[in-house]
Amino acid sequence: MEGGDNSLYRVLNKTLRSENRREVVPWFGFLKLFDTALSKLPTVQECIWRGVAGDISQQFKEGDKLTWWSISSCSVSLKVVQDFLGSEENATLFMIEAKNAKNINGYTNYPDEQEVLLRPGTQLRVKGSALHHKGGLHVVHLAEVYDGHEAQLPNAMASLNLSSKSENKSASSKYKIYCFIHTFLLHEYRSK
Predict the structure, then answer these.
(1) What are the helix (H) ranges across the chain?
(2) What's the rounded Cα separation, in Å, for the pair 45 and 39?
(3) What is the CATH number of domain 43-191?
């Protein structure tokens, strides 16, 4: 999907991000078809990752709610995103608690990337201040806001609703440890 500057992916996303919303009108038919196709794919409700070159972390303030108008390619694999960022001097890594991402792994030319998509118009809330690591890596923690409710990872929700308090702490701690380990490993990887 990511070809040259005139690839469908780049042209459509540029149009979706445009402040002139009239530019999107010619795309309505395609977007409806695309959204219908995405709705048939498996939903991903877990921590997903997206990396971009450059430090854009200052644009994300704790508690802010934002809308990503473009189609956002992400991965469930932190390693894939690390490899994508490569040796960028400055990069922003998004850790996203997804609730309605779509697994396109079976439909991509790169199945090893474990790719998932966030639909156009996905609403997100900034969960905390960005973490700034040595070497220029900036980590921003986002949670998808879906149907007016912030996304909670399914294992945390299941433990919250179906288990005792001690099990709740355990599941919540496992998730926090999981995210911490990923962030720590990324820091170690980037500092080498």
Answers:
(1) 8-17, 28-39, 78-85, 154-162, 165-191
(2) 14
(3) 3.90.176.10
